[in-house]
Amino acid sequence: MKLKEAVEVLFDVVNEGVAPDVYMYGALIHAYCKARNLLQALALHKDMLSNGIKTNCVIVSSILQCMCEMGMVFEAVVQFKELRDSGIFLDKVLYNNVVDALCKLGKLEEAVEFLNEMEGRRMSLDLVNYTTLIDGYCLQGKLVNAKNIFQKMKEKGVEPDIITYNVLVGGFSRNGLTEEALELLDCMETQRLKPNSTTHNRIIEGLCMSGKVREAEAFLNTLEDKCLENYSAMVGGFCKGNFTREAYKLFSRLSKQGKLGDGDMKRAQWVFDLLVERGITPDVITYTMMINGYCRVNCLRQARCIFNDMKGRGIKPDVITYTVLLDGRLKENLKGARSLQRGKEREVEKTGDSPFWSELNDMGKEIEPDVYCYTVLIDGHCKTNNFQDAIDLDDEMIARGLQPAIATYTALLSGCLSRGDRYRVITLVDEILKG
Prior knowledge:
single chain; mainly alpha; 24 helices; about 425 residues
């Protein structure tokens, strides 16, 4: 049921003389908060109270969380205090929300007072409470306080988890205390906690922010299971330390090794944009690897955007760039052909209709399709049952003086066999044997 319809139901119930209860109000307030419509949520909450229905911590939690998510942290704290002073029962979740809000505002002493108040109300502090406060101290650069809370937490029998360690590692690293951050890795090991990519990234970023770029690079090289996030942190660290040349070298190396675009294109795009912001113009290889990454995850629209950006910056695409785009387009057509088999109407594009192929041909002698480019096209057309187009492309390739590769013949043979064209199979086999 849509929110508007739900509100109409509420008014219909009221008009029928049935008084809505706290659960009905709570469901609607929660829905408004989820939709970030705070004004309507507060208006409904006020209406509920005016009808003599008492609020509860679940409803209040929805409102306060909505305020915090909308950046109204100060207002959330004020609202919490008003509700607390009115005598409404507030649970641990609400207290932690307000402690988190106070930490974000930098009001750490007040946050500690609320935690003490929780203990006074016989609410035992848990891992979330301690981690929230540690994070607050780390954000303020008060690392002695953060470490004291960390020790107090362990003395109280609350074992830190990976999130707590990552918060503390990040705090130490950002403030140049990388040795202390590295010591925490040993603590994690004794607790049988395995550092994750976030742990490693915060150490890398911290070292770079402290100007210890070479140490960050050395730390990255010690990691056994490096992921794209680790490399991204290193590139970002290089940029923050004004080592833009090193950042570009690493990015280019990752591009050539095929580590960019390995499924995580959001991360790859973030690094790419960071380099561009720093005034570095990627080369044709880097652009082509980005295009290839998007084509591999079937995001041809984003691949086209990168291609257009490349040309807009005056970087000429090469035959590999066009081949990657043509391959991506053909794979999209293959999906279209399969949709056609399922009864969906969609016209499968021919080679001559492709803007990438037309653009490549317009280049003349400047850029000419090679054997690999033709093979990609031939294979694509065979798979989409455009066999005549595949044969025409094979003839065109030979006319240009290019010798078909084994992969070219394999694609053609596969197409012939799927059509049951035995005569063409024999002809192609003879060509292979003669070649």
